[in-house]
Amino acid sequence: MNEILQGLLQAGRLIVTLDSDLIEISLRSLRVTLSAVVIASAIGLPLGCWLAVRRFRWRRFVIATLNALMGLPPVVVGLIVYLFLSRSGPFGVFGLLFTPTAMIIAQVIILTPLIASIAHQAIRELWAEYHDLLISLNTTRFQRIATLLWDGRRALLTAALAGFGRGIGEVGAIMIVGGNIDNATRVLTTAIALETGKGNFALALALGFILIGLAVLVNLGVHSLSRTEVSDRW
Amino acid sequence: MMLRTLLVALLSLAATGALADQMKLAVTTSFHNSGLAEVLLPEIRKDLGLEVQLLVVGTGQAIRLGASGDVDAILVHSRKAEEDFIAAGNGTHRTEIMYNDFVLIGPAADPAGIASASSAADALGRIAAAQAPFVSRGDDSGTHKKEKSLWDAAGVGADARDVAWYKEVGAGMGAALNTASGLNTYILSDRASWLNFGNKGDLALLYAGDPVLFNQYAYLPVNPAKHPHVKSDLAARLETWLTSDRAKALIDGYKLNGETLFTFNAAP
Amino acid sequence: MVNPSILPLTVTDATVRRRGKVLVGPVSLSVSPSGLTIVMGPNGAGKSTLLRLLHGMERVARGTLAWQVPEAQARRRQAFVFQTPIMMRRSALDNVAYPLIVHGTPRKDARARAATWLDRVGLADSATKLATVLSGGERQKLALARALIRDPEILFLDEPCANLDGRATREFEEILTAAHAGGTRVVMATHDIGQARRLAGDVWFVYRGALHETAPADQFFAAPRTREAAAFINGDIVE
Fold first, then answer.
1. Number of CB pairs < 8 Å for A and B?
2. Nearest chain C residue to A232, by CA
3. Which domain holds residue C38?
4. Which of A114, B140, B154, C147 fits B121 for a cystine, CB–CB 3.0-4.6 Å?
C-alpha cells in the first residue's frame, strides 16, 4: 500500500517539475498511438461500414475472423512484425526495426480489427434504419458508406477511442519492435516495464498513473470537442 | 493514391531523428542495470559525436539481433555463444572489454547455509542438498547459461534440479529478482543488477568472490561482409574508444553504493 | 419539362415472392401520367409490397415493369414516403437537402432550396434542429419535403398518416394536394377510408396480394363491384 502512495507522490512530483524525460516519453507515447489510431481508423472504419452494407458470400467468415483478430495477442503481432522488419526479413531493406514507425505499424495491425469490428456493430444498426431511404434515393454504394460514416460519426468516435485505449496501454508488441531504446523508442508502457524490472515500483507506478491520466485527458478532450460541435450545429 | 500518401508519411516519420551519427548496440540487461551505460553514453557522444542506441535484451536475443543484422554491434557476456557467433561468420572479431562478477542472493536467514561455502559449486551443492527454493532466469541469457554451468560443476545435473524447489521463470534479471523477492528464494544475479534492485525485501547477498563467478564482457561488431548495411566504421570507432584509457578510467572509477562494479581488462 | 415523361408505367404479370411465398401478384396494371390513386385494402393484403414493387425496391420474381424510359432514368424521377419516416441523424435542413446533394447539386444551392421547402411545409423554425427530435407530424412533413425536393414525376406514399393526429394529417394532406395540383402523379396507400374519400381520384383495392378491384373514386365508394370491397367500405372485418 505504501508503494502506491509513494507512486502517487512521485507522479505528482514528475508532473509539477515538468520532468523533461517524462514529457519526451509521454509525447512519444501519444505520437505513436495517435498515429496508429488515425491510420487504423482510416482503414477500419470504412472496412467495418463496407462489411455492414455489402452482402457477399464470405461476409460471415470475414466478420468472424475480424472478431477473432480483436483478441490477437500483441506479443504475437510484435514478433511477426519484428520478423518482417528485421534486416533478414522481407522488409529489412527499409531499416524500420527499432524505430517509432515500426511501433506504429505493429499497433495499426493490433488496432485495425478492433476498430473495424466496433464500427461494423454500430454501422449495422444505422444501416438497418437507413436502408429503405438510401435504396429509394438511388444512392451508390460509395455514397451509402460515406453517409453512414458521417451520420454514425459519434459511434465511430467511440470505436476510435476504444482503439486509443488499447494502443496507449499496449506494451508487448512495441517492446519487441521498438526495443525500448532510450531517447528513441521508449514510451510510457515500456518505461513502466523497465522500472518494474529494476524493482523501482514507485517510479513504475508513477508512470502508470501518468499513463492513466493521459488516457483520461485524451478521452475528455475528444468528447468535449464533439460536444462543441453538437451545440454549434444542432 | 491514398496508399502512396500513407507510405510517404510513414517514410518521412522513419527519417526523422537521423541527424547525429547513430548506431545500435545490443547489450544485456545486467550491463544496463548497472547504470554504467548512463555514464559512458554521454561521454561517447561528447568525444565521438556518436549516439549509441541501446537495445537491452537477454544474451540469447542479443546474439539473434546481431546475426540478423538488426544491430551494428553487441556487448555480451557468454563466451561459448560469442565464439559460435564468430564461427558462423556473424561477427568479425571478439574484443574483451571488462568483467564484473555474479553473486548468490538468498533469504537473509540462509536456510541452506551458503554464506560459509568454500566455493560457488559448494554453495549450489548446499542449496540442492537442502532443496531450498531457487529461482532461475530460464531465458537462455548469459546469466542463465552461467548458472547452468555452475550447477553442472556442482554435480547437480538438469535432472536433479527438481521443479519442486528449482523454478525457471523465463524472464529478465529484474523480473526474476522480483520473483525471488516475492517467494523469498535463492537466485544468481550479477552484482550490478542486485545493487540497483529496489525491491530487495528479505533478500541478502550471501556468497561472492569465487573467480569462477567472474563475468567477462566482450564487444563484437557485426560482420559487414554478411550485412552490408551495418555501420561498421562507427562500430570500429566505438571499439577504439571502449579500449582506450579514457574508457578504462571511467569503467574502473564507476561505483554503485560505494562498490566498484567493473574491472577494465581490454588489451589496448 | 425537357425530359420525356417516364409515364405511363405498364406492369405485366409482376410477382413478388419471399421465402417461396407469393406476396403480391401476378399483377397487371397501368399507371397513367396524371391522377391521384389511393391504394386500399385490409392489413397484410400487400399494399406496401405493391408500392415497393412499383418503386423498384422489390425484386420481381416474374413479369415485367415497363416505364417509358430505361429503368435507371425512371428511378431518378420517383420518390417514396414510408409509413415510419426515416430521419437521418442530421439537422432538418440537411435531411431535406440530402437527396439533392447526393445527386450532385452544390451544397450551398441544395441548402437554399431545402430552406424554401422547409418554409413551404411549415418547418422553417426547426431547420437547425436535429431531425430525430421532431414530433411525428413534423417528421412526416419533413419526409414529404425530402421526397418532393427533387420534383419527382411520381410520388409513392405508404400509409404516411397512419401514426399522425388529426391536425398533422390535415397539414400533410394540404401539402400533398398542392404537390398533386402542381402536376405530381400520386400513388398512396391508406386504410383510412375518410382520407381515401377526401383525396382519391381513383382507387385500387388490393386483396390477398392481387388487384381485386380498380375504379374511379366516386364509383368505387358509391357502388363497389366486389363483395370484399363493399364490406371494407362498410367497416366490416375483411380477412
1. 82
2. C128
3. 9-86+154-234
4. B154
Report pLDDT for A228.
Answer: 54
CATH 3.40.190.10 residue ranges of chain B are 21-99+215-264, 102-213
Q: ipTM, 2 decimals?
A: 0.90
Tell me which chains share at least 3 CB pairs under 8 Å with chain A.
B, C
3-state secondary structure of C159: coil
> Could you say which of C57, C88, C129 has the minimum Cβ distance to residue A136?
C57
Contact B79, B96 (CB under 8 A): no
pLDDT, tens digit (0-9, with 9 covering 90-100), for C84-123: 999 999 999 999 999 999 998 899 999 999 999 999 998 9
| Cβ neighbours of residue B21 closer than 8 Å, sequence gap 6 or more | B48, B49, B50, B51, B231, B234
Q: Is residue C130 part of a domain?
A: no
Write down the architecture of domain A29-200 according to CATH.
Orthogonal Bundle (1.10)
Task: Give the number of other Cβ atoms within 10 Å of residue A53's Cβ.
Answer: 18
Q: What is the pLDDT of residues C209-226, one digit of tens each?
A: 888 899 998 899 998 899
Grid cell listed for A231:
451545440
Q: What does the pLDDT read at residue A234?
A: 37
Kindly report the backbone phi and psi dihedral angles of residue C154, in degrees, each rounded to the nearest multiple of 5, phi listed first. -135, 135
Q: Which residues of B5-30 are buried (b: 16+ CB within 10 A; e: fewer)?
A: eeeeebeebbeeeeeeebbbbbbbbb
Average per-residue pLDDT in chain A? 89
CB contact under 8 A, A199 and B178: yes
Total-model pTM: 0.81
CB contact under 8 A, A180 and B177: no
Tell me what the pLDDT averaged over chain B comes to: 87
Which residue of A127, A134, A137 to mutate against C (max C Cβ within 10 Å)? A137
- Contact list, A35 vs chain B (CB under 8 Å): 13
A55 touches chain C (CB under 8 A): no
User: What's the domain count of chain C?
Assistant: 1
pLDDT of B3 strictly over 60: no
**Topology adopted by domain B102-213:** D-Maltodextrin-Binding Protein; domain 2 (3.40.190)
Q: Residue A158: is its pLDDT beyond 60?
A: yes
CATH code that applies to domain B21-99+215-264: 3.40.190.10
Is C113 part of a structural domain of the chain?
no
CATH code, C213? 3.40.50.300
> Do A and C touch, counting CB pairs below 8 Å (3 needed)?
yes
Evaluate whether A48 touches A118 at the Cβ level (below 8 Å): yes
B129 CA to chain A: closest CA distance, Å?
A: 30
Task: State whether C128 and A135 contact (CB < 8 Å).
Answer: no
Would C195 be classed as within a structural domain?
A: yes
